[in-house]
Amino acid sequence: MFGTQFIHSNYPKFFTNVYDLTSTFVLILGSVIEVQMIIAFINTILMVIGLSFLKVPSILVMALLIFILGLIPIAGVLLSLIPLSVISFAALGWTGMIEVWILVAVIHLFESYFLHPRLMATRTELPIFLTFATIIVMEHLLGAWGLIIGVPIVAFILNLLGVQEASISKHSLEESTR
Fold first, then answer.
1. What percent of the chain has pLDDT over 70?
2. Taking the model in full, what pTM does it have?
3. What percent of the chain has pLDDT over 90?
4. Domain that holds residue 136
5. Does residue 122 form part of some domain?
6. Does residue 69 lie in a domain region?
7. Which of 8, 95, 130, 175 is most buried as measured by Cβ atoms within 10 A of its Cβ?
8. For residues 131 and 122, is the Cβ–Cβ distance under 8 A?
């Protein structure tokens, strides 16, 4: 592998440190992306259940759309509202569309304030309060990107400062490079 050849160059200590740091960050970021996929899956299941109770047609198409757009924090919810609103308005009228909006709002609030911080905290082994505060602050500073990379950055900085070791052991790091 091209990247590992740097470790055997004229500056092995420098590149070993860079390799360790980038590997740790990439593995933390991968964990967070995995959590985002789990959140999108749970969100999709809850939405399908809610949409079936509201008798919205084309639930399987909506489920696929909700899952794919659920991988995009915040913007995915807003983007999914457009087809959900159109289909629910066409099939159920104004009241059906408003019911779908309420369903989306309730599920999004559950996801944002309970599910997302809880799963991120569990996966990164950070306290829930720190994870929740990080999500709020980084979303304010970086927008939607802050929701994606905020927790990995904080976990990486804490790992770098030696406050908390990453949940990734050197053994699993070596296995992932093979």
1. 90
2. 0.74
3. 22
4. 12-176
5. yes
6. yes
7. 130
8. no
Q: Which of 103, 69, 71, 67 is nearest to 85 (CA)?
A: 103
pLDDT in tens, 147-167: 778 888 888 888 888 776 655
Instruction: Tell me if 56 is assigned to some domain.
Output: yes
Structural contact between residues 130 and 103, judged by C-beta atoms closer than 8 angstroms: no
Question: 78-116: per-residue pLDDT in tens?
Answer: 888 899 999 999 998 999 999 999 999 999 889 888 888
Per-residue pLDDT for 64 more than 90?
yes
Q: How far apart are CA 146 and CA 136, in angstroms?
A: 9
CA–CA distance, 95 with 102 (Å, rounded to integer) = 11
Tokens encoding 57 = 């047609």
From 139, 112, 121, 109, select the one nearest 32 (Cα to Cα): 121
Answer yes or no: is 162 within a domain.
yes
Q: Is 170 exposed, middle or buried (0-12, 13-18, 19+ CB in 10 A)?
A: exposed
Q: Indicate the number of domains in the chain.
A: 1
Q: Cβ neighbours of residue 71 under 8 Å, at least 6 residues apart? A: 36, 37, 40
Q: Return the residue matching tokens 């259940």.
A: 49
Please answer whether residues 175 and 169 qualify as being in contact, where contact means their C-beta atoms are separated by less than 8 angstroms. Answer: no
